[in-house]
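Our platform keeps sequence and structure together, in a single record for each protein. Such a record has a labelled line for the sequence and another for the backbone structure tokens. The tokens are whole numbers drawn from a learned vocabulary of local backbone shapes. The remainder of this section carries one protein's record, kept here as part of the documentation:
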Amino acid sequence: MKKFKIGMLLFPDLTLQDFVGPYDVFIRAECFEVYTVGLNTNFIKAEGGLLVSADYSFENCPSLDILFVPGGKGITPLLTDMQYLEFLENKGKNAQYITGVCTGSLLLAAAGLLTGYRATTHWRSIILLKMFGIDAVEERVVIDRNRITGGGITAGLDFGLVLTALIGGEDQAKLVQLILEYNPQPPFQSGSPANAEPHILKKAIEITQQLFETRLEIIRRII
């Protein structure tokens, strides 16, 4: 079986679950060869302070079949960072699939890689993604031709399994799901604005408001 080379972007203040969820799927699937890529190979701090480092820098990154971008607070400064935008644009030209999870979709949009496609992101950022002219929808995983995007954070597992099924077949995806014991039974029905209690939703909006407004102003300047 051909192994698809998937390049997973790392950057300061990324949300670890955005990265680790798909990563745990991909390293167990026979159809992928996983590369981690960063501006350089120095250690960076993810959200919360955990140190991670990339295997490859932008300069020596090999050719990729699949480009993947996670999200996180660190997406915000990258929306106008030409080093990241040019890297994504260049690698996206030859990639067979361009993918992202959570607010990684915002960076893909800023790089022009979601123009003309349907996509998703974290529920709090759907409005921001629409500002780029993207057909943004609030769904767990969205496939539009060779663009595959996942919703917020935990949707990365669903995204990873969907991509595995697409590349390696449904049985391979089911096998990985079983090995991961991915059998969701959430203790609370509060994982979406649609089912969260009003006071919980209000608090979540308050907590994320400053970051939302910062990104809103940046995107207004971009467009």
DSSP finds eight helices and eleven strands in the chain. The domain at 4-187 is CATH 3.40.50.880 (Rossmann fold). The radius of gyration is 17 Å. The mean pLDDT is 97.
